[in-house]
Amino acid sequence: MISRLDSAMKAHPSLPAASSTPGLESLTDRQRECLQLAATGLTSSGIGERLGLSPRTVDEHLMTACSVLGVRTRIQAVACLAVAARRADEPRSFLP
């Protein structure tokens, strides 16, 4: 799942602004990175090891991301990113 999110984010640098998910454009790069790693099933400790952060710092990034996105759990926050990535991959069948 991380590769799909990564490829969608790289292929669509303006993805957050184009998304209908409120607050997605307000996420920092670190918050987005933590969410993407959480999407792979890593714990806060695992994410921290990958990024060179303490698990507590990772939790802070994830909690702030949840607040920005207006959700309660990291799973809901990951779902917001996944929905945005999926929408970016869907071709439009009509002209705006």
UniProtKB/TrEMBL annotation:
GO terms for molecular function: DNA binding. GO terms for biological process: regulation of DNA-templated transcription. Residues 1-26 are annotated as: Disordered. It comes from the Bacteria. Signal peptide: none annotated. Keywords: DNA-binding, Transcription, Transcription regulation. Gene3D superfamilies: Winged helix-like DNA-binding domain superfamily/Winged helix DNA-binding domain. This is DNA-binding NarL/FixJ family response regulator. It comes from Brevundimonas lenta. The lineage of its organism: Bacteria, Pseudomonadati, Pseudomonadota, Alphaproteobacteria, Caulobacterales.
